[in-house]
Prior knowledge:
The chain contains 10 helices and 9 strands. By secondary structure, the protein is α+β, with helices and mostly antiparallel strands. Helix 3 (33-39) crosses helix 5 and helix 3 (33-39) runs parallel beside helix 7 (167-181).
Amino acid sequence: MRYLQRFLPILCGVLCSxxxxxADRIAIQIHPAHLRVVESAMVITxxxxxVEEKLVSYPLQKENPKAAFDYQMVTVKIDRTLLxxxxxxxxxxxxxxxxxxxxxxxxxxxxxxxxxxxSGDFFTTPSxxxxxxxxxxxxxxxxxxxxxxxxxxxLQDPAKALAAKQIxxxxxxxxxxxxxxNSRTHLGSGDAKQVEVPQEISSKIISILSEMPYFNQxxxxxxxxxxxxxxxxxxxxxxxxxxxxxxxxEKIMKDFLKANQKKIxxxxxxxxxx
Length: 274
């Protein structure tokens, strides 16, 4: 779990155990487009067509059923389904002002990042770090939506994304897939298990990763962080205590990946069927 903690800071546990004044003490990290997609079970574009006046109380976390919050419920008419939600024409969405910092208004249009609520018959945002994109409020809405579309396409067809002509597109695919594989957020609060990623996908990811820059490049995470998402210790990697220079660390990481490209077995979180 330490891999996920490094790269997808999920604040819900902290928020639930804090007092109302948490917002004054926590610096909120808003995810870029591709990481919002990674956290989501469903990504849609649409319009808020109804706002329910009455607030409904639900627990924020399955593990803490007594910590209930008031949810504002809205109905979003779906224009396009980018990920999940097959066959749906509208969806009920609930958020809390205290935790999610979102107050929907009728007529709002945009792109919504959603996961099923663990006990209510509605969807909610994956985390405070993944709010919607509002079309009327963003000058760069179209550009951000294009990034969302790229990320959802990666999840829907990993093999095609990893075979992209542009190296930058391949590297984005590696980041999106590795982060998704290490995350359980998109599964909501249901039971989950780890299963092996198909070997052809796993080997391709390792091959591309072994050639990636060590440091972050724009919104794409570098080898120094993505390497640990492969859970290298499970595949025989031993961290040396005498490493002090990034160039030496980079060489050791890349040599390990290249030598074990066909041996490393990546795993991903999936919903456990009951």
